[in-house]
Amino acid sequence: MTGVSKLTTPCFDPGKIPAAPNDPLYSLVSAYEADTSADTVDLGVGAYRDENAKPWILPTVRKAKAILEKDPRHDHEYLPIAGLPTFNSAAQSLILGADSVAIKENRVCSFQTISGTGAVHLGALLISKFAPRPSPDVYISSPSWPIHDQVFTNVGLPVKHYPYFRKDTKTFDVSGMTQTLNSAPKGSIVVLHACAHNPTGVDPTSDEWIEIAKIMKANELFPFFDCAYQGFATGYLSQDNFAVRYFVEQGFQIAIAQSFAKNLGLYGERAGAFHFVASPSSNASSTTNRVASQLSILQRSEISSPPIYGAQIASIILNDPQLLSEWETDLLTMSGRIKKMRKCLKEELDRLQTPGTWDHIVNQIGMFSFTGLSPAHVHELREKWHVYMAETGRISVAGLNDHNVAYFARAVDNVVRRVL
User: Can you tell me whether residue 256 is helix, strand or coil?
Assistant: First the structure.
């Protein structure tokens, strides 16, 4: 056939897209579900489990759902781009404190998001679009939640890491972190876990947070808080937001990603929020309004309108003093059971005289524990004992219960003695 010209410029060819690696945690879930042994133990899942290793619907959530179903105004209409207003304002108060000066001075704008991941992503998009070029570095703890690196690199922001965890002592590496932040270029973004650090379970003390804030202010670094476990770490909402409140009190301009997946057990409902807080100034309110206008455009092009059901459940609880009080009781139930399992695991390992020291199991906080087990140990636990956990040695302590904690301790004792 004549007169047909060949393409001379490159074109998009899906056939040349390489296969991406499987997500390691989701692959772990699949392997666990395929294991037919009667002795399987799932310590990889990042979700709370009750004493019978089952998902737990919080009693407060059950009450909120009943209230919602009886409300004649309840429907399935679209929410505004920014989300459910009563949810956003209550989420603000929860993370910043009801008496927050920033809220009173209209220095905060909030957008409902697809849980915490969506909040991190929305904030990363905002930074990527309006940060100066070349883009500032984003400093993420080493180790951190793996999605942090993915979210920021996917929007074109360069990622660096600051030391966070000392493997030798299994404690917070305060000197490593502060030294790195002291040398970070001005204007860098620093991702901070507000409480119950994932995956290590190690948090800075109040004094260490104050020192971190001092260094970040001196170096003009931008704090980006990720808060997925407020109230789930210590059991008290007002304790777990200390770092965020302190940074705001110190006049920082900050971003906050907030999730209600863990602390309300609304995993699949994807209820979260992104907050921007402007620093105090005569034009702070104007800054907040301009940021909100740009977030609206980003949100509109990403998800258009956030999901309504989980936000409605959370809003009912957050805005009802009685339900809010009952929720705090639920949080104490979850955090208390996890603390109990930490204690039981350490006692079993001590009873077996398992080589090594295991104080870090009870000294860490929140859902996860960095056990110190090596990838070789993890592999042996999976192959011989049908125990499923992250290759890093991180376990979800919520996966332990009175029925399996002794079994897991025996398994750990066995592999530690066998595998160097």
Answer: strand
Give residue 34's pLDDT: 87
Annotated catalytic residue: which of 42, 137, 203, 226? 226
Cβ contacts of residue 392 below 8 Å, gap of 6+? 143, 199, 370, 375
Burial class (CB in 10 A: 0-12, 13-18, 19+), 203: buried
User: Does the pTM of the predicted model rise above 0.85?
Assistant: yes
| Per-residue model confidence (pLDDT) at position 5 | 55
Nearest residue to 192 (alpha-carbon basis) of 156, 242, 235, 157:
242
Q: How far is CA 365 from the centre of its chain?
A: 14
Q: Which of 56, 145, 209, 358 is catalytic?
A: 145
Q: How far is Cα of residue 248 from the mean position of the Cα atoms in its chain? A: 20
Asked if 145 is an active-site residue, the reply is yes
pLDDT per residue over 194-224, tens digit each?
A: 999 999 999 999 999 999 999 999 999 999 9
pLDDT at residue 74 in the model: 87
Tell me, what amino acid is at 397? Answer: V
Give the rounded distance of the alpha carbon of 357 from its chain centre.
28
**From 63, 170, 262, 346, active-site residue:** 262
Active site residue 209: no
Domains and CATH numbers, the chain: 23-57+335-418 (3.90.1150.10), 78-319 (3.40.640.10)
Which stretches of 83-145 are DSSP H helices? 85-96, 101-104, 115-130
More confident residue, 258 or 31: 258
327 is an active site residue:
no
In which order are the strands placed within the sheet that holds 222-227?
Answer: 108-114, 271-277, 254-259, 222-227, 189-193, 138-142, 159-163
Q: Given CA atoms 196, 405, 260, 297 in this order, what sign does their dihedral have?
A: positive
Q: Over 70: is that where the pLDDT of 354 sits?
A: yes
Asked if pLDDT for residue 7 goes beyond 80, the answer is no
